Amino acid sequence: MKFGKALDDICPNCRYDVKFREGQKPLFEEFKSYNTETWSKIANDKGFIKQFESYLQKVNKIEDLAYMINSNKANINEVKQAFKELFKKEADNLFRFPEEGGLGLEKIRKLFGRDIKNTSDFLDKVEDINNPIYNFIKTN
Question: What is the rounded distance in angstroms from the CA atom of residue 38 to the CA atom of residue 89?
Fold first, then answer.
């Protein structure tokens, strides 16, 4: 197991760190050993955003994805807060049609909830870091 330690380690076109057999949960795991300061920068890091969006495109359910964080470097709530900022900043891009580089509404609904009808609904969920949309964030 190798944890990515810095934003410079990101390979936007790389594959997941671990892929499990079909039917196992999660199907894909990504290991990150960022400190609190590094996590706070992900919403503005193009490489991280591109990698994360590519992972979302590859899964059918959010349960298929796990970001394993090194809890010795940052706590889970700090990481959820960082993803909250990323989701808020990237919401419009995520909702773009897939052919325009986004996920599209149907994919977002598959991943984050059928009750999402628009960006505003998504952002309402994003506000609560205890919402199940953050369940992909795990600690080691």
Answer: 17
